[in-house]
Amino acid sequence: MSARPALLAVDAGGTHTRAVVCHDGRSRSWELATMNRHAVGATADDVLLRLLSAVRHEIGDRPCVGWLASASVDPDEPAAELRRITAGAVRAGLDARLVVSNDVVPLLWGLPGVAGEGIAVICGTGSGFLGVDRTGAAARAGGCEYLGSDEGAAVDIGRRGLRAAVRAGDGRGPATVLTGLLADATGTRAPQLARAIAAQPYPKQRLADLAPMVCAGWLSGDQVCGGIVSDAVTDLVAGVRAVRDRLRLTGGYAVVTVGGVFAGCPPFHDLIESRLLDFEGAGQVTFTNTSARVVMAALEHLLDDRDEVALPAAISDRHAWIVSSAPAVVTRAEEEMCA
Question: CA 23, 289, 251, 135 torsion: positive or negative?
Fold first, then answer.
């Protein structure tokens, strides 16, 4: 009787990549930089290959079943990312069947309180929303990168904060503690900081890094920071409401939240939670900060007795896809791409 495949779970957000592999009664975890090309460009491919090579070294020739949830997966145009991940697995020598999805998807199956019905909210570097109802219908909102969405997330809060500091400095806006907070944290005055970030090829993460200063200003009572936080909360609630209304979810629906903004500023999450519970009909709001473990739980929830992943119809080939790097099924095109 052949041994069970190793199980791999990867949460690849806009800032970090966290992974865990389980085999032979033990587990191994990794934390690396982001593998999101939208955030760091081609260096994301190096991170992907490093991780998958480390997994291959850990499990040897054993087959692997896994779920790679990445902020860089565009549900409308997933093909390029599916090819990139497959190519990385082939180059690493990993015999794997992987579910590939956006990072919001496994939240709906990785927590007991949701279990395939509810709304998942990510608020980290970027933001996104995905919901599923009991009939299997799915709806999403956001997830279009920081030029098209990401409202309420770190990149949005940071950008608003930087702009507010610039406006305060030249007289177009009210005074704010952000002027000093940003200068102390970065060693640069707001106008020069704005120009320096704009000149970078991938400014998203630098903007997101400014969000904690906005939250700190808000907690100190600064009105400008308070306005930014209030707008962020409104935008995030609007994302939940849009998904709720499209799915026609009734009162008492579950919401699961995850992301660095919530983790880094619990009072911010408290605002979101109270708005959803008091005014938007949510029955429960559950925060989780163990993203790779949640991906693993979702994977285990959807495994059948043959250790195959049975994707629900609501997400199969629409929000999640299965790719394989097993030698028997790698296509010629994939081999040429990896050469």
Answer: negative
254 touches 282 (CB < 8 A): yes
Any bridge partners for residue 100, and if so which? 68, 321
pLDDT tens digit sequence for 268-310: 999 999 999 999 999 999 998 767 998 999 999 999 999 999 9
User: Which of 327-332's residues contact partners 24+ apart within 8 Å by CB, and which partners?
Assistant: 327/95, 330/86, 330/90
Which residues, at least 6 apart from 172, have a Cβ–Cβ distance to it below 8 Å? none
Which residue in 257, 319, 5, 4 sits closest to 107, CA to CA?
Answer: 257
Give the pLDDT confidence score for residue 11 in this predicted structure. 93
Closest CA to 239 of 134, 150, 161, 156: 150
Say if residues 283 and 147 touch (Cβ distance below 8 Å): no
For 1-27, how does the pLDDT look when each residue is reduced to its tens digit (9 = 90+)? 467 899 999 999 878 899 999 999 999
How is domain 6-104+291-338 classified at the CATH fold level? Nucleotidyltransferase; domain 5 (3.30.420)
φ, ψ of residue 68 to 5 degrees: the values are -110, 110
Longest dimension (CA), the chain: 75
Residues 162-181: tens digit of each pLDDT: 999 999 999 999 999 999 99
Question: Is the separation of the CB atoms in 51 and 57 below 8 Å?
Answer: no
Check if the beta carbon of residue 94 is closer than 8 Å to that of residue 55.
yes
- Considering the four listed CATH numbers 1.10.10.10, 1.10.12.10, 3.90.79.10, 3.30.420.40, the one that applies to the domain covering 112-287 is 3.30.420.40
